[in-house]
């Protein structure tokens, strides 16, 4: 079984300090939370960014500053910016987080980014739209920019869309999937198994459990040979009724579970090899 890649989704776009005062907003706070997760064993930082007052933003300059700050403390970590954006944004506004800057100017060079393969109901009237044309634009742009997509999967139909897009040349093999469980699809062993058995044999996958499902899905992912995502974006609690003090604390818990199950943790270098990413340029 491969070593375990741990992704830390450190802040998201929706959770706030009113829900957990340890949610990072500022550049310093984001860098601190990334570093704590990195020290605990995370190889990937899944990154949303905020303005200092907590408002989510897709501004590429804010992403560049955040990634530079993270790289200063975690020089070899994989940074995976979100392309989720906000309702009403154009495709290219959402994709600006994948733009590559000159290394001599700053350290902003995304190796991975998210690609959502379908639209989602997020509760009430909130619908996250990803049309076929949007998916094609995202896939084509990431190929051009040399960014490996993490295919975000919220239900089984999105796997089929991703595989169809791969057949048409908009997504390249081997594909890396992230199964988001407990939002649109139930967070059960049956449903996770169904997802895992629906992807190509050469694909890799991560599981992210939402809310109270975070650690149960993590344990299943470890046992089934996949990889794991934890962090404040998906869950604010270290255990029932007790807020997590940091993303590092959540990563530490997953690492303890993995060690009890004899699953070693991948370093960033090993994670790049597992995911087929090129070595980090110095």
Write up what this structure looks like.
The chain is an alpha/beta fold and 282 residues long. It is globular and about 45 Å long. Helix 1 packs across helix 2, helix 1 (27-40) packs parallel to helix 8 and helix 7 runs parallel beside helix 8. The longest helix has 14 residues, at 27-40. It has helices spanning 27-40, 60-73, 91-95, 132-145, 156-167, 189-196, 214-224, 247-260, 268-275; strands at residues 6-9, 44-47, 49-50, 56-57, 78-81, 112-116, 120-121, 127-128, 148-153, 176-181, 204-209, 227-230, 237-239, 242-243. The protein has nine helices and 14 strands. It has one domain: Aldolase class I (TIM Barrel). It starts with 5 loop residues before the first strand and ends in a 7-residue tail after the last helix. The chain has an eight-stranded parallel beta sheet with strand order 5-2-1-12-11-10-9-6, sandwiched between helices. It has a two-stranded antiparallel sheet with strand order 3-4. The model has no long low-confidence stretch (mean pLDDT 94).
């Amino acid at each position: 079984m491969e070593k375990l890649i741990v992704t830390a989704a450190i802040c998201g776009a929706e959770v706030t300090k009113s829900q957990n005062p340890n949610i990072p907003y500022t550049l310093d706070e984001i860098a601190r939370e990334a570093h704590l997760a990195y020290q605990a064993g995370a190889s990937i930082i899944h990154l949303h960014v905020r303005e200092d007052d907590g408002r989510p933003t897709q501004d590429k300059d804010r992403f560049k500053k955040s990634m530079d700050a993270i790289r200063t403390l975690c020089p070899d970590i994989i940074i995976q910016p979100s392309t989720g954006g906000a309702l009403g944004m154009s495709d290219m506004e959402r994709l600006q987080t994948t733009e590559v800057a000159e290394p001599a100017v700053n350290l902003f060079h995304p190796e991975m980014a998210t690609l959502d393969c379908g639209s989602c109901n997020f509760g009430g009237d909130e619908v996250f739209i990803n049309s076929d044309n949007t998916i094609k634009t995202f896939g084509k742009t990431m190929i051009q920019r040399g960014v490996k997509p993490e295919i975000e999967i919220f239900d089984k139909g999105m796997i089929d869309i991703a595989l169809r897009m791969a057949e048409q040349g908009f997504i390249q093999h081997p594909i890396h999937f992230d199964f988001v469980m407990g939002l649109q699809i139930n967070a059960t062993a049956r449903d996770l198994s169904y997802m895992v058995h629906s992807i190509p044999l050469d694909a890799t996958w991560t599981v992210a459990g939402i809310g109270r499902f975070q650690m149960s899905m993590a344990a299943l992912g470890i046992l089934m040979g996949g990889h794991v995502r934890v962090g404040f974006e998906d869950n604010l609690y270290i255990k029932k009724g007790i807020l997590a003090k940091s993303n590092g604390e959540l990563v530490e818990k997953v690492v303890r579970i993995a060690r009890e199950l004899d699953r070693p943790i991948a370093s960033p270098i090993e994670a790049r090899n597992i995911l087929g990413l090129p070595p980090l340029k110095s």
